[in-house]
Amino acid sequence: MKPVRNHLLLLLTILFFACTKELFTNDSSAVLTTSVDTLHFDTVFTSTGSTSQFIKIYNDNTKGLKISSVRLFGGSSSPFKINVDGTTGPQVNNTDVLADDSVYIYVTVSINPTSANLPFLVRDSIEISYNGNKKIVQLDAYGRNGHFFRNKIIKTSEVWNNDLPYVILGGIIVDSNATLTINKGCTVYSHADAPFIINGTLQVNGEKFDSTRITFTGDRLDEPYSGFPASYPGLIFTDVSKNNVINYAIIKNAYQGIVVAEPSSGTKLTLNETIIDNAYDAGILAINTSINARNVLVSNCGKNILLVGGGNYNFTHCTAATYSTNYIQHKDPVLVVTNYLSNTANNLNAVFRNCIFWGDANGIVNDEAVVLKKGTTSFSVVFDQVLWRVQTIPANSTINGAINNQSPLFDTINTAEKVYSFRLKDNSPAIDKGLNTGLSIDLDGNPRPIGTKPDLGAYEKQ
What's the rounded mean pLDDT across residues 402-427? Predict the structure, then answer.
C-alpha cells in the first residue's frame, strides 16, 4: 500500500504545480491597470505629514499576474512612502494579483519645512513592474510651511501677523494675563485634538476683503475632509476670559464654533462682521455670559445659536439659518434662549433686532426661535423687527414687529452643489423692513442706509 500512497502523493503534487502554473501568466501582453495615472495630494503642512491616499491595481485578465516590484523612484529619500498590501517600501517585491482581483498601494507624504511662504510642489513616481512591462504612476503634493504650535501656552501678550499660516497641534491656551492679537489676513488651522482656549483676551483684527479676513478652520485640507464639520474643537472663552473682540472672522468646520462660559465685567465677547459656519454642534454656545453681536451669520450648524443659563445678549442684523447637508441634519431650532441650565436659573436680558431666523422646511423643526423660562429671576427677551419660521410665536417674549413664515429668499441655496449665499434676492420680504439702528455697514462691509429703513439680516441688498 505504501508505493500506491507515494504515487498518489506525487500525482497530487504534480497536479498542484500544474494548476498553479496555469493560474498565473507571464505573457507580456497581459495588462494591469491602475485607478489613477497621477495621485494628487492637496496642500500638506510641513512637519505634520498627511493622511494616506491609495492607488488600486486591477488585474482584469483571466489568469493571475505576479508583480515583480513596486518601487518609488525617489527611494528612501522620497517625501512619499508606500505600503503594498501590508508591506512597506520604498520597494516591495513579488506581489500576486489574482485574476479579476486587485491590490492596494497606500501612499503617504511628509514634507520637510522650507522658508517658503507660498505653497510649493514635490513630486515622485511609482514604478510597477510585471511580465517585462513597466507602468508609471505620478505622485505630487503641495507643501506649505507655517508657524507650528504644539500644546502652546501664551503667557505674555503676543501678536500674529500674516506671514505664514498658524497650525495648532494639541491645543493652545491664552493665559489669563495675556492678550493674543491676530492681525488681518491670518489663517489659523487647528488639528482635530487642538482646542483654542482663551483664559485671557483675544483680539481678532480682520478687515472686509476676503484676503484680509481671519479664518479659523481645521488642518485637513485634503478632500473630502476639508469640508467636514467637527474638524477641530473650536474657540473656547473660559469663565476668566475678558474683553474679547472678533472683527471680520470666518470660523468654520468646528465641533462648536464659539463657546463662551460664565459672565465677566462688561461685555465678554464682541462679534462684528463674522461668519460661523458648518459647526457640528453649536455655532455659538453661550452660558450665562455677555455677548454683543452685529452683522453675524451663523449658518448650517447643528444648533446655530444656543444661549442658556441666563446672561446679557444683544444681536443686531444677524442671520441664523440652516439647511440639511450630507453632514448635518437640521433638527434643532436655529435659536434657543433660556434663563436656566439644569436646575439653576439666572437673570436674562436678550435683544434681537433686525434679525432673520430660518431653516429648511423638512417637517422636523416647526419653530426656529424658542424661548424657555424657569423660576422668578429677572427675565427679558425682546424681538424687534425679525423674520422667522415659527408655528408658535416664542413665549415669554416681547415682539415688536415680525414677518412670520415668509421665506427670506436667500440668494443661493444649493445643497447638492454645497453652495450657499445668505444675501438677499431683489424681491426678498426682508428688504427695507428693519429699524434704523445707526449701523452703517453690513457683513460684507458694504453700506447700510442711515436715516431710512435697512434690510433685515446680516447682508444689505446692494
Answer: 95
* Ramachandran assignment for 13, one of left (phi > 0), alpha (psi -120 to 50 degrees), beta (any other): alpha
The answer to whether the CB of 338 falls within 8 A of the CB of 373 is yes
**Paired sense of beta strands 410-414 and 419-424, if any:** antiparallel
Does the N-terminal peptide bond of residue 447 adopt cis geometry, omega within 30 degrees of 0? no
The C-alpha atoms of residue 320 and residue 258 are separated, in whole angstroms, by 14
Cβ burial, residue 271 (10 Å; 0-12/13-18/19+)? buried
Per-domain residue ranges of the chain: 32-143, 147-424
State the DSSP H helix or E strand holding residue 10, giving kind and residue range, or none if neither.
helix 2-23
Mean pLDDT (whole number) for 156-176: 95
Convert the pLDDT of each residue in 7-29 to its tens digit: 555 555 544 444 444 589 999 99
227 three-state secondary structure = helix
| 3-class DSSP assignment, residue 274 | strand
Count of residues making up the chain: 462
Mean pLDDT of 235-255: 97
Q: What is the pTM of this model?
A: 0.82
Residue with cell 491590490: 103
Distance separating alpha carbons of residues 329 and 306, to the nearest angstrom = 17
Which whole number is the average pLDDT over 279-303? 98
CA 374 vs. chain centroid, Å, equals 35
- According to DSSP, residue 50 is labeled -
| Region for 138 from its dihedrals, namely left if φ exceeds 0, alpha if ψ lies in -120 to 50, beta otherwise | beta
Residue 402 near residue 387, CB atoms below 8 Å = yes
The correct CATH number of 32-143 out of 2.60.40.10, 3.30.1780.10, 3.30.310.10, 3.30.460.80 is: 2.60.40.10
Strand partners, 259: 236, 285
Written as one letter, the residue type at 120 is: F
Cα angle value 421/424/428 (rounded, 5°): 140
C-alpha cell at 277: 459656519
Helices then strands (H, E): number in the chain?
Answer: 1, 35
